[in-house]
UniProtKB/TrEMBL annotation:
SUPFAM superfamilies: P-loop containing nucleoside triphosphate hydrolases
GO MF term (any one): CMP kinase activity
Source species, domain of life: Bacteria
Enzyme class: transferase
A Pfam family recorded for this sequence: Cytidylate_kin
Gene behind this protein: cmk
Similarity comment: Belongs to the cytidylate kinase family. Type 1 subfamily.
Name of protein: Cytidylate kinase
UniProt region (Disordered), positions on chain: 181-203
Organism of origin: Vulgatibacter incomptus
Amino acid sequence: GRAFLVAIDGPAGAGKSTVSRLVAERLGFTLVDTGAIYRTVALAASRAGIAFDDDDGLGRLLESLPLELRQVQGGGQAVLLGGEDVSKEIRTPAISLGASAVSARPVVRSGLLELQRRLARSAEAGAVLEGRDIGTVVFPDADAKFFLTASAEARARRRYDELVAKGEKVGFDEVLADQEKRDRSDMERPIAPLRPADDAVRIDSTSMSKDEVVDTIVAEVRRRL
Ligand code: C5P
């Protein structure tokens, strides 16, 4: 049969990345981090000197984007651009904003639709897709959908701790401001705005541990397997 598809959507910093990685690991499913794909488009554009609002340039870039996802031993996913592992480079604050900018361009969203569908469908047992519009646009017929949120403060705090742990020099206020900017642009864009699918299970993780969130999702998926 076809791969069992789990959609995990939500705003920046809700803990989607860690939770999705752990859920995929527990279920033995392939992880597809779609944010990493948008980030890689932003990185490739920036390297090629293509502006984030240059639809023609972005369209040409997408026609032959040498992007691959590779599952990492022990869970997680590496992103390769022309064979080069760019997993770290796509996580800087500048590329975060770039990803949000390119993701608002229809040419980019439609250009990446098939890629995301192909990656998920080629999974063996199942796939965990992490993003913003998986349950609403990419796979409206996903087998299990989750919408993960947390308060803006809690989300910015987590992102800040993550960046500091990686040795990035950032301030909390800057992280919160960048997050608000991205949230606004993700929710207000005309195509595929960030919103929960009607049939998504909503999880507010503000006062939950990541293990509690993972347990909740895994239990719900097992019920439907
Ligand atoms: O999840 P992550 O923070 O890595 O995503 C980076 C950016 O890519 C988001 O701010 C959002 O603008 C965009 N994105 C999107 N649709 C997705 C995944 C990410 O628009 N499915």
